[in-house]
Write a structure and sequence with these properties.
Elements: E1 8-12, E2 28-36, E3 63-70, E4 76-82, H1 89-103, E5 110-114, H2 135-161, E6 164-174, E7 178-180, E8 182-185, E9 188-191, E10 202-209, E11 216-223, H3 238-250, E12 255-260, E13 266-268, H4 274-292, E14 297-298, E15 303-313, H5 320-326, H6 332-348, E16 354-364, E17 368-373, E18 376-377, H7 379-388, E19 394-397, E20 406-407, H8 410-415, H9 437-451
Parallel strand pairs: 4-5, 11-12, 17-19, 18-20
Antiparallel strand pairs: 1-2, 2-3, 2-6, 3-4, 6-10, 6-14, 7-13, 8-9, 10-11, 15-16, 16-17
Helix pairs in contact: 1-2, 3-4, 5-6
Bound molecules: zinc ion (ZN).
Zinc ion binds at residues 116, 226, 376.
């Protein structure tokens, strides 16, 4: 295949900040970068199992972006955002090793978030192997991911070389196009707009300015909503891509980076048309502009980070006999799921009963706490964390560091439906998580919050 274009643009950030108070606050340094990661040839696309052919053109270019921050203690934080379906665990692991070897950065200093666009390239195809997918498709995805890995490392290296004193601050606003998509019906929970379901309309915004506050150099912003206005055959960053583009157009020289929140059970409505996607992007960019208006909370640092895994248990899997029966299912996804599990059973003698989910906490002093969860996390988690941390600026990101499947809350798990376990059919997991999934995650996160708590 032809090489995938990954042009690297580095945009430094300037500024030193001294507070109005007599005491000199810790200084930040920062730099941002972006790399175009639109495949240069047609590729199979990720997100919808019903697609049967490769991409056909480009509606909006895809980007990987980086923001590197350094606090007054010299601690660095690399923030990576991707206009892609997810973050493969293997990519995260390889990047962890590279940033440790090359830059002496610890795992907690690396945060990677994917926008979950369903109009990006396929990154892993192992799950299709048993169905005889051509090896070209696997090789293409691996080649793309390898180039992506290099582009990310290059961006971090460039940012580290170009770090300049900066002012870093936080504000937030709201945006309304996300709606809960779990509609209760007599037939169970259906994927349909549900205006009375839980939502998190928060739009957190971290801004990086010049010392005098006159020039905006980077905008890191979030929203909790599936990035799935579209499902067509063209590459496109969906609403998150259009929002980033609108912000970069409005602030020439600035890099806008999107962080997906706990949008596992949220959809953008209305959806289906490119024009609607552009409108959602515009709406989100407007919310970010709104967040930029009030005097922001200036972040003084220092950084305090922790990362670990919460071991999640699955509900007991089906027996070999039940799986054999399921291989006859008329639903081809259910049948191939059963075949995958039987293959595991034959090869390894067992089906994995747990999954180590990455959780990460990044505190910016006592001014802002970013909690990053892996998987497709539902809104209940961000709502609960904000409730349990009153008085703090809390930013909860889902789809971070590893996107392995849905992470339901206990409520969603009990209610059933797609996010509760139905979607597991498309994975190699045995089935739904066990009922304590929420408590395991919350107790892990609270542990990380404790170890990173500022001493004052
Ligand atoms: Zn999803």
């Amino acid at each position: 295949m032809r090489s995938v274009l990954m042009a690297l643009t580095v945009l430094g950030c300037l500024a030193s900040f001294v507070s109005a108070a007599d005491d000199v606050k810790p200084l930040w340094k920062a730099a941002a970068a972006k790399a175009k990661i639109t495949p240069t040839e047609p590729m199979f696309m990720a997100g919808y199992a019903s697609r049967t052919k490769p991409s056909e053109g480009v509606a909006l270019d895809l980007y990987a972006k980086a923001l590197v921050l350094e606090d007054a203690l010299g601690q660095q934080q690399a923030i990576i955002t991707l206009d892609l379906i997810g973050v493969p665990r293997s990519l995260r692991e390889r990047l962890e090793k590279q940033v440790a070897d090359k830059f002496q950065l610890k795992p907690e200093a690396l945060f990677i978030n994917a926008s979950h666009t369903h109009c990006g390239p396929e990154l892993r195809v192992a799950k299709y192997e048993e169905s005889g997918i051509e090896s070209d498709r696997t090789a293409q995805a691996q080649d793309y991911t390898a180039k992506l890995e290099h582009a990310i490392v290059d961006m971090i290296a460039s940012c580290r070389k170009r770090l300049e004193p900066a002012r870093v601050s936080y504000s937030h606003a709201r945006c309304g196009f996300a709606m809960n998509r779990r509609l209760p019906t007599p037939m169970g929970y259906q994927n349909s707009p549900y205006p009375d379901g839980p939502v998190d309309h928060d739009v957190p915004v971290l801004r990086v300015d010049s010392p005098d506050g006159k020039t905006l150099h980077a905008i890191l912003f979030g929203y909790a909503c599936h990035n799935t206005t579209l499902g067509f055959q063209q590459f496109c960053g969906d609403y998150a891509g259009f929002a980033q583009q609108a912000l970069e157009d409005a602030h020439p020289g600035a890099v806008a980076l999107f962080v997906l929140g706990c949008g596992g059970d949220q959809n953008p409505y209305p959806r289906g048309q490119l024009e609607q996607c552009q409108q959602h992007g515009r709406a989100l960019a407007n919310a970010v502009e709104t967040a930029l208006l009030p005097t922001p909370k200036v972040l003084t640092g220092p950084l305090s980070r922790a990362i670990d895994v919460a071991v999640l248990q699955f509900a007991p899997p089906a027996s070999r006999e039940e799986l054999q029966k399921q291989t006859e299912s008329k639903n081809r996804f259910e049948a191939s799921h059963a075949k995958r599990l039987l293959k595991q059973l034959d090869q390894d003698g067992k089906i994995p009963l747990e999954y180590p989910a990455i959780t990460q906490v990044i505190r910016f002093g006592s001014d802002l706490t970013l909690i990053a969860m892996s998987g497709e996390v539902v809104a209940d988690y961000s709502l609960r964390l904000k409730r349990e941390l009153p008085g703090e600026n809390v930013w909860v990101a889902g789809y971070s560091n590893d996107v392995f499947g849905y992470v339901p809350s206990q409520r969603v798990l009990k209610e059933g439906g797609y996010e509760a376990g139905g979607a597991m059919t498309y994975t190699s997991f045995p089935g739904p998580f066990a009922e304590d999934v929420e408590e395991r995650l919350m107790s892990q996160i609270h542990g990380l919050l404790k170890t990173t708590k500022p001493s004052k």
